[in-house]
Amino acid sequence: MQGIINTAKELIDRYNTGESIKIMEVCGSHTMAISKYGLRQILPPNIKLISGPGCPVCVTAQNEIDASISLASQGVTIATFGDLVRVPGNNSSLQEERAKGRDVRVFYSPLDALDYAMANPSKEVVFIGIGFETTIPSVAMTIKEAYTKKIKNYSVYCLHKTMPKALEALVVNGSDIQGFLLPGHVSAITGSTIYNFLVDRYNIGGVVSGFEATDILMSVVMILKNLKDPKIEIQYKRVVKDEGNTEAQRLMDEVFEESDAEWRGLGMIEESGLRIRDKYSEYDAEKKFKIKKPNSNTEIKGCRCGDVLKGIITPKQCPLFGKACTPLNPVGPCMVSSEGSCAAYYKYGE
Ligand code: SF4
Predict the structure, then answer these.
(1) DSSP 16-64
(2) CATH number for position 179
(3) What pTM value is reported for the model?
(4) Which ranges of the sequence are coiled-coil (predicted)?
């Protein structure tokens, strides 16, 4: 392993022009891996890895968090991934609602939430559907299965977001990002060709990377090598294909259709989210429970998650980092989530 890292470092030195280079990683798992392996410290000082909007919990908009919390008070069972329960809303959190006696349950998979609904027909179970293309197919599967089996007490609050339009939002008005470390898990579903617009329209390349230290360093080498002639390439070939997982794509497309979506930090982005198709509308919690998101999308006071997610500041540049905001007492989602940049910087002492 050390030998491969040394080789990657030699290659980075070979292709390093000495100019300032900014590469954005757009996957929370990459952020964690980069911090864990200390890769920022390994790279020459002119090559900066900055974190982007790739943590699903972190990019969920504040009014979506508040709407999920207020749904818990309607007597339904909230089914969710673990990190989301600790994200502070403007007045409460799902964790606080659970402490007050609301039924908030953590599941590792949406399929477990559907099983729970089937085993408890007297409960209305609402799964909070956050996340990108990695998790969307399994949520689609639950909706399809509930439809086929005529399950009436399961629905999904669809807050899913998709990656390409968010990347475009980061570069559309000009950017100093010269390359993207593209997400490995998302791309296993979508394939790599969805990123071609970055080269075609913005002359910015990217590499779909794996998650080991050597994967990420070799991906950096590939980006540096192609800086003058940007390309979209796959380093993580053992998992990702150009065309992705076409069966999962078909499933997503059958259950969901494109919609506009609001992102923390990035605001409203056209066609960057999904909604449940009419055929499956009885499984759409937004319609079933007439969920209204608060109009105002007030960010948590003092929290700079929005700027962290856009790569404008590093977590340590937030005045609250490590002081008022720690993993035990998180102020914002980037410190809550196991894929959040602030949590990564805190955990690994960057
Ligand atoms: Fe928000 Fe805390 Fe990160 Fe600051 S350190 S941006 S308050 S999560």
Answers:
(1) --SS-EEEEE--HHHHHHHHHTTHHHHS-TTEEEEE-S--HHHHB-HHH
(2) 3.40.50.11740
(3) 0.93
(4) none
